[in-house]
Request: fold
Amino acid sequence: MPELIRADSASHRRDAAIDVDQFLCDGFALREQLADFLELTPAVLEQRLGASCSDLAALHPGAVDFDPLRVGAFYEETVGTGHLLELAAWHLGSADYIADTLRLQARCAVGQVLDFGGGIGSHALAAAALPAVEQVWFVDLNPHNRAFVAERAARFGLSERLQVCRDLHDPSLPSRFDTVVCLDVLEHLPDPAAQLVDFAARMEPGATALLNWYFFKGFQGEYPFHFDEPALVERFFETLQDRFLEVFHPFLITTRAYRLRPAGPR
Reply:
């Protein structure tokens, strides 16, 4: 069952507004909330954030020894709270870039929104605050990520509009979504093409998908948890071009917007 956040918003402090300006200011009170959640002092948190990428990479057995069938277990069990720290460091250090992804989401997100692999919840929280959005479904394998996002939503009084689930097999999820958000996730999957097919099957005819990817292990192997096999990447792009049509947007970011390709001859 989804982990429905039922906390009374009146009993929780609203940390700050949920808009792009506030994200640029403090990442939606990210440092404070993460320090509270992890029970760290601000000084220790800064130390952990600075080493978070290398710490997370050190948990990975490496490209040669990594069994693709263990990807789920790696993110659900092995990374622990280290993934929260790595994601937080990325969001805080790349705020201008992520702000544009939030602006893009604000242009596109409506109705039932799926945030797949939502991490620390920046996009889920922002989407839940949009007037055109009915419900946000935050899906993430990592139980620490889910607990942290649940706590963040309660602080912002967004509990009734945001539900957290482990995976897309949860029976409480809608059969179809009006918006799909999947950022910085596809490169971590052993079969990203199959994930595109799953998304297409769960999208309403007029739905929009916001996607990005980085199929590269890094120039110095700093991203061992990314898949980059040429055949895998080729299948991904073949599937993307077969199932989706790109929709122009004005932001200079790697995130792209897509609609389903119409059925019939092209």
Notes: The radius of gyration is 18 Å. Residues 4-15 have pLDDT under 50 and may be disordered. The first helix runs from residue 20 to 26.
